[in-house]
Amino acid sequence: MLSLTELRRAVILLDGLISGHRVQAVLQPDAKSIVLTTYGGGSVGRCHLRFSCRPRCARVSQLEAPPRSLPRPLAFAQYLRSHTIGARIGGARLIADDRQLALRLRTDEGDFDLLLAIFGARSNIYLLGADGSIAVSLRPLSETRPELKIGDPWRSPESKRSGTDEDRFEAESDERFLFAIEAMYAEVEQAGDVDDLRRRIERALRKEAKSLDRKLAKLEESLEEARVAIGLEREGELLKSVLSQVKRGDLEIIATDFETGEPVAIGLDPKLTPAENLEKLFKRYRKAVRSLAKAGSRQADVQASRDALQESIDRFQSLVEGSEAPEEALAAFSEEPAIRKLVGKFAPTPPAQRSASSAPTERKLGKHSVPNRLMPRRYSTADDLEIWVGRSAAGNDHLSVRLARGRDLFFHLDGAPGSHVILRTEGRSDPPSEAVLDACELAVHFSKSKNASRADVHAVPIANVRKPKGAKPGLVTVHGGKTIHLRRTEARLKRILNSRIED
Fold this sequence. Notes:
Elements: H1 4-18, E1 22-30, E2 33-39, E3 46-52, E4 59-63, H2 75-84, E5 88-94, E6 100-107, E7 110-117, E8 124-128, E9 134-137, H3 141-144, H4 174-230, H5 232-241, E10 252-256, E11 263-267, H6 274-322, H7 326-334, H8 337-346, E12 362-365, E13 368-371, E14 377-380, E15 386-389, H9 393-403, E16 409-413, E17 421-424, H10 433-445, E18 454-461, E19 465-466, E20 477-478, E21 482-487, H11 490-498
Antiparallel strand pairs: 1-2, 2-3, 3-4, 5-6, 6-7, 7-8, 8-9, 10-11, 12-13, 14-15, 15-17, 16-17, 16-18, 18-21, 19-20
Helix pairs in contact: 4-6, 4-7, 4-8, 5-6, 10-11
């Protein structure tokens, strides 16, 4: 993290660099930093400033270009966007001559201070209101200032300064000082990210190894129990030889072993008849045979998985110990399907810390949050209605059962499998006929009969569509509605396909 001397110099340079600028954009490249893009015209032009509260790398720095932002910025960045875009920067200063950088942001609703507090593990970024109260913080206050709450006035911590107070960038010119800070700490963060990835892979491999070893141990116990139970066949044959001597209510019967001539005591259930006792013994024997076969097969599969895992562990160890480019090697290793699955299962990245390149797992569609894999294709009619088309069997279910509502119309080709198609009527009881024909075209196009020149398409209100309990994905039942005899036209199909609404 920056020393007090380095932060003092950064404040002086920032004050001269961006005072009078306006905030153009607020980006959040990761969970513990934000980037402000400012513009002031003249020779300075546009600036990209990073404020980071990552404990070992807390800093203010300047970037050559804006980074990619998280697909879903955290509440802090969203609050900044809604309250400070367009704000004029009124200057930078230190608070209490400590490692607390305050950037004044002047807006129509009042002044704010963007406060970067650099205190090691308690580093954080805050937005203070005009009255000095805490409006929002990037990290939870419980992690950095548990004695404070949102809405409380800001108070500088009573902490002793620690560490050296040198300027490690003393040789850098003023023009390159903030860039040099970013270059150094970006390298430190990269090394930390590599180390974090190594630990996550290591943890995932270790947990999977323990899981497989436990499974093998349990399977061995099951096999041993089954092997013991196999001996029930011998008891059954012996019982059969003395079955005529057994009486209901006996607890055991003594039979002579055919091979050794020794007496063998066979336990009995006094509630059962002799024949039922015999059947019970053979039933337990047959079950043991099945269990032995099943456990043996399972043991072979689990052992093969354990052997494959050990090969991955060995490769990982040699990669960590001998690679000259650990970042690239670890990244490639982590992207192998089996390893990616294990890391996702045992050591996933917390959602708030996923990199800016991570794609969101779901998107908004109206008031619904829809998983990416279930998001329908969307088309626009000439009357500005939307037509939604399922992409898969599961997507069909989600579209027809969860997304479609009210007076929406359901379309499906008669006599051929295909995608579910929904015409969003926006509450109209009698939607335009052209929109209905557009939906019919899409129902045929996304079916097994896409090349047919004529087709019968069934249209029914969504209220008449039901998903039978236990039915396979994509299967629904309908009642009522009407069949539309569609004479297909290339022009109509081309127009509706070209109206695709991009996700």
